[in-house]
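forwarding from the other thread:

> can someone predict this with adenosine-5'-diphosphate?

sure thing
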Amino acid sequence: ITVTRAVVPPAIKAWLSTARPMLIDGKWVKAQSGKTFDVFDPATGEPIASVAEGDKADIDLAVKAARRAFASGPWSRMTPSERGRIIHRIGDLILENADELASLEALDNGKPKAVAKAADVTLAADMFHYMSGWATKIEGKTIPISALAAPGAEFVSMTRMEPIGVVGQIIPWNFPLLMAAWKLGPALTTGCTVVLKVAEETPLSALRLGELILEAGVPAGVVNIVPGFGETAGAALAEHPDVDKVAFTGSTEVGRLIVQAASRDLKKVSLELGGKSPNIILGDANLELAIAGATAAIFFNHGQCCNAGSRLFVQRNIFDKVVEGVAAQADKIKLGHGLSDDTEMGPLVSKVQYDRVTGYLASGRREGARALCGGEGLGGAGYFVPPTVLVDTKPNMKVVREEIFGPVLVATPFDEVDDALIAEANNTIYGLAAGVWSGNTGRAHQIANRLRTGTVWINCYHVFDAALPFGGYKQSGWGREMGQAVLSNYLETKAITTRLG
Ligand code: ADP
């Protein structure tokens, strides 16, 4: 594949012409060490920007700022309606700058700009808009108590929901802006203050978001954004003694490290981790819908989704038709630079990911899987891997067991909707998402009820909404993102009892 260099919009070029600083205590500052790191265009492998490299010293300053902002207000003491209005304004500013943010995302992550605009940017704005409404609706209860040890006395008891405090948030590179929104939205609406460590592969859109957050009126120190590497900045944040809670999205492996780091001080932890999601197509499904759906389920965002429908199970009488249909659609997906108008799929995010995914393809070949399309990396300067459909797989193959996080689907036929099918669909350490395709919705619901996953999509896939909780069973995580459910990640419950009379 020959990838022409992107025409970078002039405003972005100007913004990237100086090293991007980090956001600490309302100011844009260099790293304490003075160090910067390069950020690359994954379609060409060329550097596009340099960014301040945060490490422990910067995390210390950021946590100090977040603590001061939490302890002395004005954020946690601001009226809920005022806080909500500011959060809503962040959503408005994201939409006003949608084109620029989508371009940055395409350049930095590699995804097509049109997709970034329609999905990442739109959903990020909606997350702030949705969460802004909760600011005024976080309520406690009055609870009738019996107080058996104080006979005759009268009490009134109530609960107050309070922000958990200073939150450390660590996010990955697959949806850089959207993951920042998923994390910041609920933390802000509950009145927490934040230190956000963005992924070293893709720091740019979150840094631009930081500018919009200040413009919206978020006070200094409430949101601090520190770009840097996982083992330095990330680890320092996860183990910082003055951080009350850590929220992490990323690999299950690193999730385990986060839990270890947070365990010394028994910090609260929420985790959104990996997946190997089953997508099940029954013989009575609408085939046109199911084939397009199965294609999008795995290939959206180049398969770099924790919830990608990466294990396809198809009833045997339609198996050949479905996998050939998916392979034919996959073959038509146009690969190219994220900033080119006709690109439908960009490169993988980095050389590391390219090597990882092509390593899985080699392992699949060695173990006897057959590629109906794709099957090998394209080589060259960019990190392009074509959409790949593997058949003739066995349940114990690495490509079936492990999360690939790339555009690789493994497809297996099944005979009946029975316990064996459900057991195989659930036969994974993960439990993030699943899909079921059937003309018989009642039957699809029966299957949905038996899948051990935090999300099930019936006759659709990748439908996300700020109002819907998302998260994992088993080793896919702890807690939920989005919806009302996410608020509990950021709140403490205080019970107050008053003796009457
Ligand atoms: P991926 O495999 O998708 O790159 P990772 O789990 O490696 O996902 O990374 C997700 C985020 O976690 C990134 O911001 C990364 O810098 C950070 N990270 C990686 N290692 C650590 C660590 N040991 N401690 C804290 N954060 C880390």
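The chain has a mean pLDDT of 97. thats all i got for now
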